[in-house]
Amino acid sequence: MTAASELARNTLVHGRGGTLTISEIERDGRIGIKLVFEDTGPGIPDIEKALQDGFSTAKSMGLGLGGARRLVNEFDISSTVDVGTKVSIVQWKRR
Ligand SMILES: Nc1ncnc2c1ncn2[C@@H]1O[C@H](COP(=O)(O)OP(=O)(O)OP(=O)(O)O)[C@@H](O)[C@H]1O
Ligand SMILES: [Mg+2]
């Protein structure tokens, strides 16, 4: 929930709005939930920097992206300047 709300907030605030696609997935007999956040905003020039705690271009805390990555089982981000940003996360159901 926290990762989802942080990423949704980034999509709105930095990405100027976008979409969230939620799906149930199965791999190796395990069930998980996958969330994909996509926007057509300004993009992120330096993803490594954006993931660092304390880095913010919005004078905020700069904890959302790195915090979200730490909270989930799988985290994937791709971004192109002037095109947009896509962040995918997966959380597996506990057995
Ligand atoms: N969807 C996005 N589009 C463009 N830039 C983004 C996006 N998501 C994150 N960023 C960039 O990465 C930086 C770090 O994101 P992060 O969520 O860690 O911090 P924040 O949103 O600035 O502050 P916080 O989430 O702590 O309130 C942002 O300041 C912004 O520059
Ligand atoms: Mg944020």
Characterization of the model:
This protein has 95 residues and is of the alpha+beta class. The protein is built from three helices and four strands; from the N terminus they run H-E-E-H-H-E-E. It has a four-stranded antiparallel β-sheet, covered by helices on one side. Strand 1 (18-27) and strand 2 (30-39) form a beta hairpin. Helix 1 runs antiparallel to helix 3 (64-71). The longest helix has 12 residues, at 2-13. The radius of gyration is 13 Å and the shape is globular. The site of magnesium ion has 4 residues, from helix 1.
Largest sheet: 4 strands, antiparallel
Calculate the mean pLDDT score and round it: 97
How many helices? The count is 3
N-to-C CA distance: 19 Å
**Which parts are unreliable, with pLDDT below 50 for 5 consecutive residues or more?**
none
Count of separate structural domains: 1
The helix-strand sequence is HEEHHEE
Q: What ligands does this structure carry?
A: adenosine-5'-triphosphate, magnesium ion
Structural class: alpha+beta
Just give the CATH class: Alpha Beta
Helical residue percent? Answer: 25-40%
CATH architecture: 2-Layer Sandwich
Instruction: Label the overall shape.
Output: globular
Strand sequence of the main sheet, in spatial order? 1-2-4-3
The oligomeric status of these chains comes to single chain
What is the total tally of β strands? 4
What name does the CATH topology carry?
A: Heat Shock Protein 90
Computed Rg: 13 Å
Proportion of residues in β-strands: 35-45%
CATH fourth-tier homologous superfamily: Histidine kinase-like ATPase, C-terminal domain
